[in-house]
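The data layer described in this paper is built around a simple, fixed record for each protein. Such a record has a labelled line for the sequence and another for the backbone structure tokens. For reference, a complete record is included directly beneath this paragraph.
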Amino acid sequence: MIYREFKDKKLSLLGFGAMRLPQNEDGSIDQELTEKMIDYALEKGVNYIDTAFPYHASLSEVAVGKALAKYSRDSYYLATKYPGHVIADSFDPEATFELQLKKCGVEYFDFYLLHNIYEKSLATYEDPKWGIIDYFVKQKELGRIKHLGFSTHGDLPLIKYFVEKYGDVIEFCQIQLNYLDWTLQGAKEKYEYLTSVGMPVIVM
């Protein structure tokens, strides 16, 4: 396995994403196969596990938590995300965060992302009524989040705005970057901008 340095951590270049886990015929997560896959990944040197609140009807975090329960907490890095991009009547970051910790069976997250900051979700994330960003900055200060970042499918001007405004508390950015999106989604320009300002990039 190849590793990349991120502050005091060495992250495996390949992570394990839990957006699309194997399923049983009834659509439920195949827990046994999921655990075999995660076991194999960790055995081969993968140490970055990525999930999110909405994945698999909010059950991905539960499945990942069960799969990791047999391992010591310092043997992997767990990432999950806050669903501020979803359409909802209200947002309660505290209740969601406490639930995520419980679902994953952990006391802290190594990496926590504001999920999909883009043109239509920015207002929700910045709305003082919900206090989303301030809440998660506080959790980072308390050590319940080790590293705070964001994922995005937004355009470059949106990314620049967000980084320039919150770059003092946001530590990394996750973007969609592959051969097709290098041009289709302007990933080349996004990647070059983020690296030019010293913002580490995680690839989805």
